[in-house]
Design goal:
By secondary structure, the chain is an alpha/beta fold. Helices cover 35% and strands 26% of the residues. α5 packs parallel to α6 (159-172). The mean pLDDT is 89.
């Protein structure tokens, strides 16, 4: 069974059609790049999968179920916005995640904080923007989820940290789970992707494995993306 499936999924915001009759399936055990220009519908799709928005029409299923309390227990979501309370420390956040998520691996989180030199007693408001983003990702990737939804996980960090974050994603997710990475930084994430979904103006224009693109187009995903979406 697909871990994420969309059936004629549409979402409107007033007169704006953010998603238009999308059909797609994401299978367990795959790392999928959700790729498209800004405003293409990537974040809307991820929010629908996480139950933060409801479809205008059609349906979205997580492990065969509509997003809700049951699916939140198996979905680990990284927002593209900072959401951590500034008064909390990394340690307090680990306490919170331990209480809130039965699948949270505290030891894994502590190990990653240590490797990145982040003091768990430091409060969020004392951290740089890049460090706050690292803490958010560590918390998300320390769950044993079935589906990881990562919205722009490497947008605001330096290249060295970017490499560590991608390595963290690959080394720490459950092999039977799926990871969806929404990004426009394709060259940076291409090395970790199994499949890609191109989305533009609310339509899925391509769903393919990375290997198929390289074999059939004779190009990297980044080069092909630039060709498809050139201005």
């Amino acid at each position: 069974m697909a871990i994420l499936e969309c059936k004629d999924l549409s979402k409107r915001f007033g007169k704006i059609q953010a998603l238009d009759s999308i059909n797609l399936k994401i299978e367990p055990g795959r790392v999928v790049g959700l790729l498209g220009p800004n405003g293409s519908g990537k974040t809307t799709l991820i929010k629908l999968a996480n139950g933060l928005l409801t479809p205008t029409s059609g349906e979205i299923l997580i492990d065969g179920k509509a997003p809700g309390k049951e699916t939140k227990a198996i979905v680990s979501y990284l927002s593209d916005k900072e959401y951590l309370p500034e008064w909390m420390s990394a340690k307090q956040l680990m306490d919170f995640f331990t209480d809130f998520y039965a699948d949270f691996d505290r030891e894994r989180a502590k190990e990653m904080l240590t490797r990145l030199g982040i003091d768990e007693t430091m409060r969020i408001k004392q951290m740089s923007k890049g460090t706050r983003e690292k803490v958010q990702l560590i918390l998300v990737m320390s769950r044993q989820a079935k589906l990881y939804l990562l919205d722009e996980p490497i947008g605001g960090v330096d290249p060295a940290t970017r490499d560590y974050i991608l390595d963290t994603i690959i080394r720490n997710y459950n092999p039977s789970a799926a990871v969806v990475i929404s990004t426009h930084l394709i060259a940076d994430v291409e090395q970790v992707l199994d499949d890609v979904i191109f989305i533009q103006n609310g339509h899925v224009t391509l769903q393919s494995s990375v290997d198929e693109i390289r074999e059939e187009k004779g190009k990297s995903v980044d080069a092909y993306f630039r060709e498809v979406f050139k201005c």
